[in-house]
Amino acid sequence: MRKDQNLGEYLRAQGVSRRGFLKFCSATASLMALPPSAVAQVAEALASARRPSVIWLSFQECTGCTESLTRSHAPTVESLIFDAISLDYHHTLQAAAGEGAENARMAAMEENDGEYLLVVDGSIPTGNPGFSTIAGISNLDMLKETARGAAAVIAVGTCAAFGGIPQAFPNPTGAVSVSDIITDKPIINVSGCPPIPVVITGVLAHFLTFGTIPDLDPLGRPTAFFGQTIHDRCYRRPFYERGEFAHTFDDEGARKGWCLYELGCKGPTSYNACATLKWNEGTSFPIGSGHGCLGCSEPGFWDHGSFYKPISAGLWGPRETLLGAAAAGAALGIGSAMAARARKNKALKEAEADSS
Amino acid sequence: MSASEAISIRAEYETGNVKPLLHEIRHALERLLKGEDGTIIDMRALPLAPGEEKRIEEALGEGEVRAELNALGPSVILETSYPGVWLVTHRNTEGEIIGRQIEVTFIPSLLESQPEDIRAGLAGLENELAEDPA
Mind listing the pLDDT tens digit for each residue in A5-27? Predict the structure, then answer.
């Protein structure tokens, strides 16, 4: 797509009829979790949408977020949305490397100052700058430099949104989230480990369509996708209401598809859209495949105790909180401190035994 | 046929959402006959257990009209056995479902020719006639 074309012109040049465009808009409205009645509004806005520049930075991450997005086979709606943006820098996907790649980033920043979208996946190490660098530039410096001229920042994945696995105890690199560093730009957190690809493109489509950021929840996540818990939209919810739970992964309850709450499902406390959008082109999601939700879209999910203990066993906070609790116990008296430590050790041992 | 459809799954459980959905469709039909706007239900937004979508399809059945649209992949627009209730399935060029809706309306708007396409078609016809005046 040429930079001077709008999306409507681009699709017409590709031989896509108005009817085909309306089909595209219908799928896009569904992608953005808008009511189907909004299709006409989406069509009007998308037809005149200009191609925004996007710079994608990858820091301390496993590339799962990019994999999630690029695994969809072309030409999906997601890929058409990607055709409609100018992805000017993504060092995992681009052919250029080193200085050539950095020049492309600098050129995109200069040409689109104040207007480009910055997408970040991965957390940012604040310990030794050498923990993670790109072309010799520390992640922290690159984020600050690139965010300066961005219209908005999209933190893709739980690592960028909340620190994620790199931040898990004992957080050896001093990993932090994008919003811990950037405080003067609109930030959209698209959490998940990885996020659902259509949620990533849904947020891009929203920006492309309306030129604004979507409504966000208190954790900075788009309410269209993170407004309800997995539990709210889970097809196993009726079993929960009736108290019908699987107790092991191969008992009668499991075979009958009963609720996985007692097997550690974190659906009741996890906000995400897996239960309706699902994965792998809408085929299934973890609960549909017989495993509880891990709560991967929530802050600190890795340090919240065992994945296989029910929520009622205690939502353990980050270990620093537990250590803080032990310290407070010491101030109150040796006896209570020892009790706190014993509880902490018991919890940590149980979590470690379960994860091993 | 999708991968999950290829595997024989006997769903022993249900959300209980099928019957309320049919009631929602009934109410939408009543509104349509009173002259109010049509209704579109996005199937993707419904929490459904494995097998329930199939049960909805079976409950709605197939009616007199089946139209296929070829634009950015195939779409099937099917009037169900209840006139005014249409099942619209959009696929991409690889056959993957990218959208599924139940439309309660006299005719889904996608079936109507669009003015932009008519204008382009008219220009094409005029060119054709200009090149071959005989």
Answer: 777 777 777 778 888 888 888 88
pLDDT of B22-45, one tens digit each?
999 999 999 999 999 889 888 877
Closest CA to B84 of B40, B20, B44: B40
Closest partner CB to A16 (pick from B72, B99, B113): B72
Partner A contacted by B94 (CB < 8 A): yes
ipTM of the complex: 0.78
Find chain B residues with C-beta within 8 A of A26's C-beta. 90, 99, 101, 110
The DSSP element (H or E) to which B78 belongs, if any, is strand B74-79
In whole angstroms, what is the distance from residue B82 CA to residue B65 CA? Answer: 11
| Band of residue A2 on the pLDDT scale cut at 50, 70, 90 | low
- The CATH fold assigned to A237-313 is Cytochrome-c3 Hydrogenase; Chain A, domain 2 (4.10.480)
Backbone angles phi, psi at A235, to 5 degrees: -70, -15
Give yes or no for B67 touching A (CB within 8 A): no
CATH among 3.40.140.10, 3.40.50.10750, 3.40.50.700, 2.60.40.10 for A51-226: 3.40.50.700
**Do B57 and B37 touch, CB atoms closer than 8 A?**
no
Which of B43, B44, B70 to mutate to test binding with chain A, by most A CBs within 10 Å of its CB? Answer: B44
Touching check for B116 and chain A: CB below 8 Å?
yes
Nearest to A27 among B17, B93, B99 (CB): B99
User: Number of CB pairs < 8 Å for A and B?
Assistant: 106
Work out how many domains chain B is built from and give that number.
1
